[in-house]
Design brief:
alpha+beta; J domain-containing protein
Length: 289
């Protein structure tokens, strides 16, 4: 019974891999709608397949942004239903959800696949533009943000050809972004992030982990330094002595003098006579009877 279940699971995984490969080929050929359908099929067959979630999200964004779908359709790109109120919070939530899905993890399988990586990068650019359009529409007034069919009230372009091409990089961003170093308190690491008007309003994902960061951007905290020794201030250092009971070195910070220290390993208390950073004598403290 277990063997049959494993065989079914392996078969579904193989079918999902083929569907994902087919989606990549269709996307490269400009057939975004079919690529979206194939990626969705791969995700249903094997949701745990590496890269399938972000690839399916990327093709979905491209499909929603197709020029033939009626102009600047930011609602469809952000996955917002027509008629729902478009507020700053809902736009931020959708942008954050889709960004984390597209940029799932730095070790995602899509990073090792040039075709899928290009699709994800293009989807991120389209998502940024849709979010900027949405924020501009909200700032201008919700009553003027779109028509009854959910499309933006801007002059529509002529019907697009069947084959879809990603917009050139020059058209993907509204305003230039500034490269700055940002610190993530979650993974305690720094990364070079590009920050523009959009990031200042809705935040951005950490490049090292899945944490969502919001302005004001943090800087790496400075390491705490022990105050230098000076007149009236003795030098502080780690106790050089070892516990006479278990041989574990003490972790306490001390200065020259006598100290009653308790070993963290065996919990025995000892009197330690500290003569300097490299010399100390420890004696087990005798209990009173």
């Amino acid at each position: 019974m277990a063997m049959a279940s494993n065989n079914d699971e392996n078969e579904r995984r193989e079918q999902a891999e083929k569907a994902l490969q087919r989606a990549e080929e269709l996307f490269a050929a400009g057939n975004v709608r079919s690529a979206h359908l194939q990626a969705g099929r791969a995700k249903r067959l094997c949701p745990s397949l590496p890269g399938v979630a972000s690839a399916a999200a990327a093709y979905e964004v491209h499909a929603a942004a197709r020029p033939g779908k009626g102009g600047n359709n930011w609602r469809a790109v952000l996955g917002m239903r027509y008629g729902d109120a478009a507020t700053l919070d809902t736009i931020k939530d959708q942008f954050q959800r889709l960004s984390l899905l597209l940029l799932h993890h730095p070790d995602d399988d899509n990073n090792n696949n040039a075709g899928r990586r290009a699709a994800v990068e293009g989807a991120v650019a389209l998502l940024r533009r849709a979010c900027e359009d949405a924020l501009s529409a909200v700032a201008a007034g919700s009553s003027m943000e779109d028509d009854d069919d959910g499309t933006s009230r801007r002059p529509h372009a002529a019907a697009a050809p069947h084959n879809y091409k990603m917009p050139p990089p020059a058209m993907q961003l509204h305003v230039p972004r500034e490269a700055i170093v940002i610190y993530c308190p979650s993974c305690k690491s720094e990364f070079a992030g590009k920050v523009g008007r959009l990031e200042q309003q809705v935040g951005m994902k950490c490049a090292r982990c899945t944490e969502w960061l919001s302005p004001p951007w943090q800087k790496k905290p400075q390491a705490k330094k022990e105050p230098p020794a000076g007149p009236g201030r003795p030098a502080v250092f780690q106790c050089p002595a070892k516990c006479p009971e278990c041989g574990e070195q003490y972790a306490s910070m001390v200065c020259v003098g006598q100290w009653c220290l308790r070993c963290k390993a065996c919990t025995k208390a000892a009197m330690v006579d500290v003569q300097g950073p490299d010399q100390a004598t420890a004696t087990i403290k005798k209990s009173r009877t």
